[in-house]
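Ligand-bound model needed. alpha-D-glucopyranose.
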Amino acid sequence: MKQSWKNILAAGICGLSILAAGAQNAVNAQVKFDTTEAINRLVSQMTLEEKVNMLHASSSFTSGAVPRLGITEMVMSDGPHGVRPEHGRDWNLDNNIPDSSTYLPTGVCLAATWNPQLGYAFGNVLGSEAAYRGKNVILGPGINIIRTALNGRNFEYQSEDPYLISKMAVGYIKGVQDQGVSACVKHYAANNQEILRHTIDVHMSERALREIYLPGFKAAVQEANVNTLMSSYNKFRGQWASQNNYLLNQVLKKEWGFKGIVISDWDAVTSTTQPMWNGLDIEMGTDLHMLPNPNYSKFFMADTVVALVKSGKLPEYLVNEKVRRILYVMYRSNMIGGKKNAGSFNTKEHQQTAAKIAEEGMVLLKNENNFLPFNKSKIKSIAVIGFNAERKQSMGGGSSQIRAFYEITPLEGIKNIAGNKIKINYAPGYKIERGAKADEAMIAQAVAAAKKSDVVVFVGGWTHGFKYNVWTDNAYDAEDYDKPDMNMPFGQDELIKAVLKANPKTVVVLIGGGAIDMREWLAETPSVLQAWYPGMEGGNALAKILFGDVNPSGKLPMSFPKKLADEPAHALGQYPGDSTYVYYLEDIYVGYRYYDTYHVEPQFPFGHGLSYTSFDYSNLIISAKGKTADVSFTIKNTGKVAGADVAELYVKQSGATLPRPEKELKGFEKVFLQPGEQKTVTIHLNEDAFSYYNDIINEWVMEHGQFIIMLGSSSRSIKLTGNIQL
Ligand code: GLC
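Prediction:
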């Protein structure tokens, strides 16, 4: 096609800027050249209607194209731990497509690895499979703070601690985006409960917002260069998050310099001028109100915007600014002017990554007298009890559902290792039915299995509850639901007690997204293992840990309280609010920040996780350098098997102008050691590690004074302490 002189000139400008970019070591490897000129040229060629068409959905999971100019639809897909089964363009889940994908462990399991390299590997798998399935945006990671154990979506999220979230989410996002797919960090912001999620108006201090609820998003923007971000359903300080001037324009775009796209949560938009002025870029999901005959020009940011601009009631530059952001992301993710990554799907490597994350993410909470690992040569029979041992979880949870390529259940994993040497006696023991009490006959069957076996593996806990594409009211860990309480559902407490009585050699394995009340049977149980939702290879990972082929190295990414009333959101804060407002009165005292400052004993502390070996810490040396410090120490594997510990660095400042928590995580390193091996590790603490947000003057401040540095293998097993004057 004959190139007009303009295009040739533009190409020349691009060429020059490529040279310029190359010469200055392009800041972001993903932006190959300065796209400003190309973007301005494209925008100037578009009609108003074409531009507005890009600001809203063109189907259930795509936003509008401009075919005339070679701009394709932006194709989006859930979810945070695998590419969701195909939806038709109008929401019907299409069951006839070979779209079974790699089912990775869910967010909390990834966070429990405390291994940022696995964050990157996780993102790589997700991005590669999204690329293969033709997606431009994968709607994850979900990183909302785990404020209460009742939140139905905790399983999809990561932690109660903003520093751990930042470290894990950055790797995940880079992993996705290095595959030429955009990540979408969500749900911005303060979406920490599912109950009332479409209506609740969240309030908290500026300090809690800045120190706890925003840092994960800030790291996603400033460290991972995330391409897109999803605004949440709820209101924040009186304005819907998808049209919140403070969160979107002031903090995200102005203060943090976010260059990407703000996408609304599905069906979250309720007006036109506010989202246009207040920073929303793409409206999704409003068609949910229009089914079965969706009309995409009737979205709030569609024909109405065209009319308002034409009548001079909305300035066109608002439209242009949004289109520029979308085009910028399209360039960065090779949707324009780049070669799309073919990606790969259901590969062995992807499955091995899923396995690795499950193996490193499971947390050994209790292991009295080294009850675990089992000795394969000594055990002749195992009773496996609990419906979660056979339950496939991948399609559960709501929008994060996955049609797994395969899913190894705990029972299958144990059978794979047992082979024909160890007899497996299985009994479901309970059934999934909301409000079901323990069934005497099922208990009797479980007790009989326990009695005739050498050891017992109980597999219970929470569950997703689901039918295909509709999550039933059995859901405990699922979108749109919060748990009614922290009690074991389906009569499991009674069942566990009966099984322990029949055979005390029982390990309890918990499937689920977070803490459950274990008080009725914990004392009698020699071992407890938290398995989360460990993905398609979860059963094999669990069995390898039970038999010692894998030495567990997971650490809790959230505190496990003894009982719900001990949680700060329930003790100090409000939950779920009074149907209109919810005030986070616990403020910055979330999780261990509360338990340690208010001297409340958790069941298992943040950062806790046992190993089959032991570690010794020594030689803590802290060297202050201006407003930063280097902390070095020696860690040694003093046991008989290889293993990994997470050295966790907590900082405390007493005597600051404003009160500060007893401790705050500001560094960590997962260290793998052979028996007898030792390593000297240095962790750098920058100025952020010592600063706090003074919301009287609305600034981050680092006050001079004494700081206590605590090094531990959990927030409550501090091994070495030192202090410095800064
Ligand atoms: C849902 C969820 C969001 C998901 C979106 C699309 O309501 O809140 O996480 O990505 O809609 O399914």
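The first helix runs from residue 5 to 23.
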